Amino acid sequence: PNNSQALYQMGIIYSKQDNLEKSIEYFKRSIQTNGDYLYPAYRALRLIYVQLGQFDQAITCFKEFLSNHNCLASDYQRLSDLYVKIGNIDEAIFYLNTAIAIDGKDQFSYFDLSKLYEKTGNFEKALEKINNAISIESRTSFLMQKAKMLLRLGRVKEAEIAYNQVDKSWRSAFNNLKKLALKKGINLQEINKVEFPLGDSGLYPKSN
């Protein structure tokens, strides 16, 4: 086959047979035709690279597509996710901000951006972004993130207020944090210097 659709379909067939090398070959050939199946071929190729753990290749593939096409905010969100996977938080932040510039009404982009700024130690920026998310929709996970950032900044009373807005089943996280701090002999005002093993982001209760 030599047309975009046929080459793409061959790539799908080989991917279902777990012949990823052949699948990559056909997706690349589909892309080279610059036909109607350009977007799905790029997407499929990127997913295979991710499956193989070849995140740098996935990023290169994605950026090649983005440089030549009008893209959605979700495309830049996915690119940001890939940069997170390789530990490049600065680039992840850049592309998530790009996504927000396209669609500033996606609360989850602000939530993810808050967590990325948290990773860099920029708690003020992380608080700003989680407030953006809450202004669109008030969710338990958002309020928890806000309370955590307030604690990181030593603003304990404000953090307690944020926790009091969440469901009672989640409020124990704040008490757990205070107990752990007390056990470690840590003043809550110094909490921004501490790593707490209470879930992925430090405070969230573990799921049952």
Strand content: under 5%
Q: Report how far apart the termini are.
A: 51 Å
How would you describe the shape?
A: elongated
Helical amount? 55-70%
Low-confidence stretches: 193-208
- The overall pLDDT average reads 83
Q: Would you report the number of β strands?
A: 0
What's the alpha carbon Rg, rounded to whole Å? 22 Å
The chain-level structural class is: mainly alpha
The number of helices is 11
Q: What is the chain-wise order of helices and strands? A: HHHHHHHHHHH
- What profile does the largest beta sheet have? none
Structural write-up:
The chain is mainly α. The protein has eleven helices and no strands. It has helices spanning 4-16, 20-32, 38-51, 55-66, 73-85, 89-102, 107-120, 123-136, 140-152, 156-163, 168-183. The longest helix is centred in the last third of the chain and has 16 residues, at 168-183. It is elongated. It starts with a helix and ends in a 25-residue tail after the last helix. The relative contact order is 0.06. Residues 193-208 have low confidence and may be disordered.
